[in-house]
## 1
Amino acid sequence: MEIEIQIVRENIRKACERSGRKPEEVLLIGVSKTKPYEAIQEAYSFGIRDFGENKVQEIRDKFALLQEDSLLLKDAPSFHMIGSLQKNKVKYLPGRVKMIHSIDSLPLALEVEKEYAKKEELASVLLEVNVAKEESKSGFFLEEVEQALEECKDLPHVKLCGFMTVAPFTENPEENRVHFRALKNLLTNMQKKFPALPLKELSMGMSGDYEVAVEEGATMVRVGSFIFGARDYGNAHKS
Ligand SMILES: *Cc1c(COP(=O)(O)O)cnc(C)c1O
């Protein structure tokens, strides 16, 4: 795992160099979903501090282990919720996650407002955007985002930090450049339309396409299988 993390960091550095950006502008999130807590400890020992998970139950379990882990508590790692989120599970997230990347509907945003208000916490969130209008994926279409921001912008416990996308699966990451560029353009436009909002994050790029995503302006990349190895879902559903 150490060498893979080094490779990803080096590739991010080079992609930044090619596009005139600074590597510090890009947060590497290790996607540890389906992997045991020990995988988090190992990645932590190689400098990873941000972990992506897509199931609330897994965040609860791993967060509990983290609370007992004196080795990691001094400079505690953070969890990012990156998977599709059911409304009835939102209540478990306050205090456990640094950011929710997967706000894909207005009712979900309203639920986040409600549950974070109860705990008097502020939720940092990203709106998920279905950049290629794939039927299998959730998220707002690009042209729906402005309306969604309009509807969420005054929620007192929801901090709108930017956008996230899961680009289409492809063998050739260059094919996703157009989608990453479209999301960056959207961010630039929405920053102008909503100057009071703290929109600045673009969570885009995975194992197969993070370098192109960084060239196109990603501030967060979510890299799972390249760092942690292939995921084993047994014969259960994949996600
Ligand atoms: C699983 C997952 C990733 C990581 O995918 P890899 O291809 O394994 O790097 C990133 N983002 C989301 C939303 C995911 O569900």
Note: Residues 2-18 form the longest helix (17 residues).
## 2
Amino acid sequence: MVDLQKQYQQIKETVDNSIQDVLNTSSYINGPLVKEFQKDLEAYLNVKHVIPCANGTDALQIAMMGLGLEQGDEVITVDFTFAATVEVIALLKLTPVLVDVDKETFNIDINALKKAITPKTKAIVPVHLFGQVANMDAILEIAKEHNLFVIEDNAQAIGANYTFKNGSQQKAGTIGDVGTTSFFPSKNLGCYGDGGAIFTNNDELAHTIRGIVNHGMYERYYHDVVGVNSRLDSIQAGVLKAKLPHLDSYCNARRNAARFYNKALANHSAIVTPTAQSNKTANCGQICDVCDCHVFHQYTLQITNGQRDALHKHLLSKEIPNAIYYPVALHAQKAYKDDRYNEADFPVTNELIKTVISLPMHTELEEDQLQFITNTILDFLN
Ligand SMILES: *Cc1c(COP(=O)(O)O)cnc(C)c1O
């Protein structure tokens, strides 16, 4: 699905030098590169605070701890996402409230979100799934009306821009009260191990979170709150610092591959290609670099003639990597089943788990590879 080796070869010298630097100075934990990467990412995202941590799951958990959410508080998120999002809600003994997604964007369904709000609701966690920013105009409006926190799970959309109704733009992950991301190797900005970060423009929240990631310490050996140990190590920070200047060109390369796929697969009656229209008011329906609201962490088709599983196997037999993200709705997972949920409330997710298939998507895809992949799909489905 990804070609990390080829990408590494392009930036080998910078990455090798920065890793060597860490080895030479032995500053493995909280070395200068961590701070440098933090500053670089703050400038790139135009956000006041980036707090690096150990992975994207920790980032979500720490964000919720920082906001002071308490047992019994209801947190609304989507039924169609990676489990980490709901996992941390449950771990903190908050009450997850799963809602359906939008058929075209796979992001949170605004009507379902509105319906799910109760007096116990404290936060909304939109997930910018597959690299496309959720409808933040609507989410912010609802959050304001009901006095809710917005925690953006931006693990899949770092680098994406959101265009508001009024035309202004903001980077994904910096729009809500707090945003989180993952630097897992296959993410759009990936390190060579685990890593994550939390973003916020709120000084007080940033201060609280900086203590939480470090055992609840604000002064050495004085523990004011119950915290965790969650750090980005210096070697990973060095890799990320070397890769950050390339993030925009990485996102463009992904969009180019998506454009090729969309064009090649546009006219087949059993295929629904993805659109980039998270802000439906700026709805060009195109994959453009102007609003760049979609950074294609995944390129995900819907196969509507019942042949999705057969196509999955066929592509594997031709050595074309592909994956089903995600094969089970979260409300149906053993760990998250609950009598509160009603099948009738999840028509879109229940359909998507049967139709979606994600194709190879990375920064090194070449035209002959894309041609081979799309030809193989069209030959099979015809
Ligand atoms: C990858 C991912 C996470 C978790 O990130 P890790 O670094 O693997 O912990 C959380 N949410 C979403 C949507 C993800 O894709």
Note: The domain at 4-245 is CATH 3.40.640.10 (Aspartate Aminotransferase; domain 2).
## 3
Amino acid sequence: MADATYEQIVRWDHAHLWHPFTQMQEWVAESPVVVAAADGNYLIDTEGRRYLDGVSSLWCNVHGHRHPAIDDAIRAQLDRVAHTTLLGLASPPSAELAARLAAIAPDGLNRVFYSDAGATAVEVALKLALQYWRLRGETRPRFVALTEGYHGDTLGAMSVGFSEPFHRFYEPLLPVERVPAPYALEREHGLAPADALARALEAMESTLASARGTIAAVVLEPLMQGAAGMWPQPVSYLAEVRALTRRYDTLLICDEVATGFGRTGRMFACDHTSTSPDLLTVGKGLSGGYLPLAATLASDEIFEVFLGPYEEYTAFFHGHTFTGNALACAAALASLDLFTPAMLAALPAKGETLARALDTHVTPLAHVGEVRQHGTMIGIELYEDATRRTPYPSNARTGHRVIRAARDRGLIVRPLGNVIILMPPLSITDDESVRLVTGVAEAIAEVTDA
Ligand SMILES: *Cc1c(COP(=O)(O)O)cnc(C)c1O
């Protein structure tokens, strides 16, 4: 069968596909890049043009595309079997991966419940938390979450997240108390970092104190709130929140779907302060960004509360058809093998290379208000007036125009509003980091000075 032409693919796409997070009226008026292949850190379109994958194919690719070790692991698994169910049956890759995840996860997280998207991993965490308290004889219907948190797009995950443009049609869902993270206070009230940290912890504490006994869990993205537009936290915030959840006797759910697997310079964001949550969600980079795979890790204490004779129905009655898919687990095992001690040790330097390039080329630009970074997670916020922090009107489509200009320079990046997100694969080289940052700087200058 001959490959379809670019024109044919675009006709099919424009006539029948509904793209995620996309205003389709705008989409069909533009010519898309059609990615047909990839090679390491580069995407290759139908015309053979190469683009640096500056957002890791939406924050998930870790070691580059078509990594020989991961490709081989998937092929080898394919020669055995692609998928079998975990309902009533076990499988080698899902069992081995569970053991490997328990070994590298923060202390005490020894149980792995698989699903296939970050959002489903969060649903599982929320349901485990609700059921955990019910099994302990308490009804705790509420969650505490951070302002502008993002946890995925299914109903439960969405209700612990909040973003005005994403969620305005769906409020209200689960009962959720929202508290600001330190950065939200810096941003909204111009507080100095130390004051913002203190105020954010006060807000968390007073919420936990006043709602004591009704909160199933605090759920948050540790260290970096990604979809908010890369809102960083001081490293100590997470450990302080952990202490508060213990003091007020509630659970802590850390959503590391974005931050997990090396993104912040350590394997997990929790590792920066050796913090162990009660539940941890991972996704995106778990399979190296190859296949849809996510997991919810639970502490022994939570797991044990679900044990009992069958007829008491305390089991966790939850599952998805593709839970623990063998190909995806095989990819994940191969990806974890690539996290050698040397590879992990080299990660902080990658973040520093990016930081230096950003300082030199991006921060000085007139319309750049702020550059926020942890490791290889970067947000560049653009303003019409950077000094006064006056935003661009949304109909100016400034972020969108910048990523189009970056595309002309062979770079694929994506905006969140007027925040330009960079999140390259961990396999990015120093030269590629500099090329990514200088190319994005040129694109910003071209669009914002016009
Ligand atoms: C992307 C993301 C999710 C959702 O993951 P999906 O696989 O897109 O469902 C959840 N939490 C965080 C922190 C994320 O960044």
Note: The first strand starts at residue 35 and ends at 39.
## 4
Amino acid sequence: MSITENLNKIRSSLPSKVKLVAVSKTKPNEAIQEAYETGQRIFGENKVQDLVQKYETLPKDIQWHFIGHLQSNKVKYIAPFISLLHAVDSMKLLETINKEAAKHNRVIDCLLQFHIAQEDSKFGLKMVEAEQILESDKFSTLKNIRIIGVMGMATYTNNVEQVSNEFKRLSTIFQHLKAKYFNEDQAFSEISMGMSNDYTIAVKHGSTMVRIGSTIFGARVY
Ligand SMILES: *Cc1c(COP(=O)(O)O)cnc(C)c1O
């Protein structure tokens, strides 16, 4: 099936409130352009250098999301234009994002990444670490970042029950943080969870943003 057909199929299966991030990492501009022509505007990348190149050569109304682990020393390259950072998992990174955003007079939206999978290779915060960040004096001084929700990746497994439980945990984490720190804050509203192999499960458990790559663009060749 074509990229257009894949996109249409996915869109028809998603509730209208769920945003679709088309994960275009490793894919050429032509593939992104085809998706763009169907109306897709949110694209996800996980390598700074590739993202900058795509930003420079593709239409300027694309909303670029950075979905990978971001190194502090690379924030400056994407700070001028990035629309959302999905995988923020340290105070140090938040401070750097804040500093670089200020240089461009921007407020950059971020999601806190939580560790929900059993695999220990995946990045992400524990609840206590997130609370330490949110309760710190330093955090309250960061005026050029805005936390708009949480992000997580489930274990890569066919075990539906396990994946369900991991997504349920992220939903619970979101609700806890919302009640405790963001009750008055309308912007704190996003749960980024679900990829090609598990997005239908994620949507059942309250995902507001799914990140789908290979089901749209085909398998990645590295
Ligand atoms: C690559 C990637 C995706 C998309 O993966 P697919 O299985 O191709 O849908 C989603 N989220 C993150 C963080 C990724 O790195």
Note: Strands lie at 19-23, 42-45, 63-66, 84-88, 108-114, 145-152, 190-192, 209-212.
